[in-house]
Every structure is written in structure tokens, then in C-alpha cells.
Amino acid sequence: MTDYSVSDARRISTSARRLIQAGRTWLFHLVILLWSLPFGLVIITLFQIWRPPPVVRWTLRLWSTGFVAAARWITGVNYVLEGMENIPAQPVIFVCNHQSYWESIAFTAFFPHINVVSKAGAMDIPVFGWGLRHAPMIPVHRDRRGGNLRRIVRDARASLAGGRNILFFPEGTRVPPGARRRYQRGLEMLYRECGVAIVPVAHNAGLCWAEGFRTKHAGLITIRFLPPVAPHGDPRQVTVGIERLLNGEKDTLAALPAREA
Q1: Which of 120, 239, 140, 121 is nearest to 190 (CA)?
Q2: Which end of the chain is less enclosed by CB atoms within 10 A, N or C?
Q3: For residue 259, how many other CB atoms are within 10 A of its CB?
Q4: Which residue ranges form the domains of the chain, and what is each CATH number?
Q5: pLDDT of residue 112
Q6: Cα–Cα distance between 206 and 203 in angstroms, integer?
Q7: Which of 16, 12, 66 is nearest to 38 (CA)?
Q8: Could you tell me which of 217, 224, 254, 223 has the C-alpha nearest to residue 79?
Q9: What was the pLDDT predicted at 259?
Q10: Residue 213: its pLDDT value, please?
């Protein structure tokens, strides 16, 4: 009879868990595909002739809520919101680190009328991207840098005046836990021109949510809303301070046991 060491048993157990989690990830993608079909049908039919933005946003929120719930129940990716008391009653600019597409979708579930500053290419993604386009959200065209900033500020001011919060990812792209990327100029301009508070948001979604079809890792994502930064301060100092604050917070969250082995 073969004797297995404790280390052998642990390796077998770890491999089995990884295999099960990979299967749960593929089941999740299948469920989201099926969940998306009726929404896609509505978008390519009804929304071609009638798509009031508030209706589009509530529809997008329903789809996103299903996405977040499926992630929780199928892949075991849960979340906790900390610091909700730091969100003022009036519209604000959420400034958030970016690690995966999970947080982009989750924010449209948490805040029904949020306006996400998103790369234009994301708006071509079936269902979710179409919802972003018609919500409407604020597109960023990579090849129009100067024009982008002026239009982003103009659209953000209009959205804030209409009662919509703004979600801005100052890193400009996904940055994995523990990594750094210099903040873009857009944050400084938004703060200077919009005249509203900024609520910094840090999270560790990248520990659980791998990109594409790679295996998602069961665990707890922490989303931390930090105290608001009052408007009308020195834009450069505020931008530098937020960058330093969020980098420190996301490093702290990256050390949390968010991911199962």
C-alpha cells in the first residue's frame, strides 16, 4: 500500500480545488451568457426606437446586479462595502483604482445613475457595452487626447448638474495589485472644473477577478469609500494627495486574505 505524505495530500487537495474553481468559472460564463440574451434582444429591438436614458440605466443596473450575484453564488466572489457614510447626498466624483472589469460592472449595480468615464472600445462589448453607450456614459477615445479632456469635463459637469455621480479611473487602465501607474491629467481637470467633492475609492478586486476567461478565485473583495475631498482646493496638491492615498490604501487591501488558495 502506497504511503502518501501530508505534502502529497495537500497538493492533491489544492489541485482538486483549482479544478473545481475552474469549472465554477466556466459555469459562471455560461450563466452570464444566458442572462445576457434577453437584454441583448431588448437592446437590438426595443432600444433601437425607444431608449430613454433613465430606462437604459435601470436596465443596465438589473443586468449588472445579476452579474454580481452570479459571481457571488457561482464563483464564490463576494464583496463588502466599507465607508458608505463617506458618500455625500449630493453628486460626487468617485475616483477609483482599476484592477479588473468586475468593479466597473459592480459600480453600475451599486449606483443606478452613475456616469462611468470609460474607454470608447468598451462600449462595443455586447450587452454591457451597449448599455454604457446608451446610458449614456462618457467615452474616452485613445487617439483624441486634447479633445478628450475638454469633452470629458463638459459631459461630467452636465451629468453632475443632472444629479448623476461620476466614476473615474485615474490610472487609465487596469493595474494589478501591488503595481503602480502614474495618474492621468483628467483627475486634476475634473476637480478644478467641476466644483464638487471627490470620494476616493480603493479596492482589491484584482486578487479574485482574473481577466478574460481565466479562473476566478473565490474570496472577499473589499471596496473602501474614503472621506470626501472638499472642492475648490489646489488641484495639483489634491491630485497628488489622492494618488498617494489610494496607492497606500490599495496596498493595504492587497494584503488582506481576499483570495482562497
Answers
A1: 239
A2: N
A3: 18
A4: 6-254 (3.40.1130)
A5: 87
A6: 8
A7: 66
A8: 223
A9: 55
A10: 85
C-alpha cell read off for 48: 433601437
Residue type, 238: V
Query: Cell numbers at residue 254, please?
Result: 492587497
**Ranges of the chain whose pLDDT falls below 70:** 1-13, 143-147, 257-261
Backbone angles phi, psi at 59, to 5 degrees: -65, -45
The grid coordinates of residue 115 equal 456616469
234 phi and psi angles, rounded to 5 deg: -75, 115
Q: Which residues contact 50 (CB under 8 A, 6 or more apart)?
A: none
Residue 50 one-letter amino acid: W
Candidates 23, 33, 30; CA nearest to 75 is 23
Q: What is the pTM of this model?
A: 0.91
Q: How far apart are CA 2 and CA 244, in angstroms?
A: 56
Going by C-alpha positions, the residue among 242, 209, 256 that lies closest to residue 82 is 256
Are 254 and 60 in contact by the 8 Å Cβ rule? The answer is no
